[in-house]
């Protein structure tokens, strides 16, 4: 087992720690020796874990545990970082493992230097280790299942406690959410503003997501903005990739907020931003699969020199029949749709970046800056620079 762990560490750079059947630490393969204390804390969690292979979440870190059935020894792999380490995570680890504070910089350097990989790959590494040590297959989904049972029990117990609590909290936001999502999907900016005015005079009971009021509002924001993006904006035909990018960016901005008021202001502006984008890019709701696929292809290739033949090839349909259907369903041609998508992307770059006109023109594959400027003014009635000054001065 020790040789396997040594070879694994040499090949993958993930720290590995081995424990004997009696809980004794046998060997650690890690660039930061003091991390032994953290491994020991993780090993102690296995006392209540019946499964052979399990995930052990801890802050922003994740560990994999594999028990060797024949010897009752244990291998711990990790940490796998769920997000880049920050000062708070380092402070938490130092306190939890009673590490000297003067080692904080070294700990941070160690965590930052850990290999970056997908979560799916990490699960497959656990499956590989389990197969090698125990001679049996364990799929990724099985790791989720056996690990999840413990968390399901915990959540179930808390829910039961809540049912028997005299003062229950009821979630009264469902109807409001449905109305809001319908307006986002329709790109109805004025309707959404009017709805916000109405509900500002009402009170809602929201579920408890955290003990701290700021964390409570942040958690609500994260759930809401994901719902607004996926169930509202994408359903309103906003580009899928752009929507996910916006969800990620707004979530990051939320985490930077220091007060509840900041979160509330961000929430309002984020929802309005999604709705405005849908309003600007809205297409008919009854699109065929091939036309919808073509539009998504166009929107995600604005910075590539695509033309009508590329779009036709993407959908794999007869050119003449597809072009006729595209015009019938969208009211425009494929060529104009490509130009419109590039110009909409140009508006974002003009408003939210400091890229020059030449850089934007080259990035979006216009034949030249003068052509880009002419097409922009023809579409929006102002030059690119006039648009930038107007939007950035707001």
- The appropriate CATH architecture of the largest domain is 3-Layer(aba) Sandwich
CATH topology assignment of the largest domain: Profilin-like
Q: Rg to the nearest angstrom? A: 27 Å
Helices and strands, in N-to-C order?
Answer: HEEHEEEHHHHHHHHHHHHHHHH
Question: Total helix count?
Answer: 18
Helix content: 55-70%
Number of strands: 5
**What's the CATH class of the largest domain, please?**
Alpha Beta
* Overall residue-averaged pLDDT value: 81
Quickly give the structural class. alpha+beta
Description of the molecule:
By secondary structure, this protein is of the alpha+beta class. The chain is 62% helix and 8% strand. It contains 18 helices and 5 strands. The chain has helices at 2-12, 36-44, 87-97, 104-112, 119-134, 140-164, 174-186, 189-199, 213-233, 240-256, 260-281, 289-299, 308-315, 319-330, 334-352, 357-363, 369-380, 384-392, and strands at residues 16-19, 25-29, 53-58, 61-67, 74-81. The longest helix is centred in the middle third of the chain and has 25 residues, at 140-164. The chain is elongated and about 75 Å long.
């Amino acid at each position: 087992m020790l040789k396997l762990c040594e070879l694994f560490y040499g090949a993958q750079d993930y720290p590995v720690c081995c424990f004997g059947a009696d809980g004794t630490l046998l060997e650690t393969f890690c660039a930061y020796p003091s991390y032994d204390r953290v491994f020991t804390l993780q090993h102690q969690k296995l006392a209540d874990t019946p499964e052979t292979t399990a995930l052990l979440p801890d802050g922003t870190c994740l560990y994999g545990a594999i028990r060797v059935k024949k010897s009752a020894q244990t291998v711990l792999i990790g940490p796998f970082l769920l997000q880049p380490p920050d000062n708070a995570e380092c402070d938490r680890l130092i306190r939890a493992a009673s590490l000297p504070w003067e080692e904080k910089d070294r700990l941070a350097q160690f965590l930052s230097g850990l290999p970056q990989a997908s979560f799916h790959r990490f699960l497959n590494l656990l499956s590989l280790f389990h197969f090698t040590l125990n001679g049996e297959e364990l799929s990724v989904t099985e790791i989720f299942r056996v690990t999840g049972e413990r968390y399901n029990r915990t959540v179930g117990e808390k829910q039961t406690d809540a049912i028997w609590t005299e003062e229950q909290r009821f979630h009264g936001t469902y109807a409001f959410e449905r109305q809001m999502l319908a307006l986002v999907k329709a790109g109805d900016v004025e309707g959404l503003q009017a709805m916000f005015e109405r509900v500002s005079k009402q009170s809602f009971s929201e579920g408890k997501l955290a003990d701290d009021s700021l964390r409570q509002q942040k958690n609500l924001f994260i759930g809401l903005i994901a719902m607004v993006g996926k169930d509202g904006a994408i359903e309103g035909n906003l580009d899928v990739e752009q929507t996910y990018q916006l969800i990620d960016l707004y979530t990051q901005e939320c985490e930077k907020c220091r007060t509840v008021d900041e979160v509330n202001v961000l929430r309002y502006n984020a929802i309005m931003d999604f709705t405005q984008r849908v309003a600007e890019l809205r297409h008919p709701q009854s699109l065929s699969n091939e036309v919808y696929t073509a539009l998504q292809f166009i929107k995600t290739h604005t910075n590539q020199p695509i033309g009508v033949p590329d779009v036709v090839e993407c959908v794999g349909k007869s050119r003449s029949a597809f072009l006729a259907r595209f015009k019938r369903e969208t009211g425009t041609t494929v060529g104009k749709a490509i130009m419109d998508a590039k110009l909409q992307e140009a508006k974002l770059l003009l408003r939210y970046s400091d890229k020059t006109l030449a850089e934007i023109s080259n990035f979006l594959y216009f034949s030249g800056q003068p052509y880009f400027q002419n097409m922009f003014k023809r579409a929006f009635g102002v030059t690119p620079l006039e648009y930038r000054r107007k939007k950035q001065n707001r």
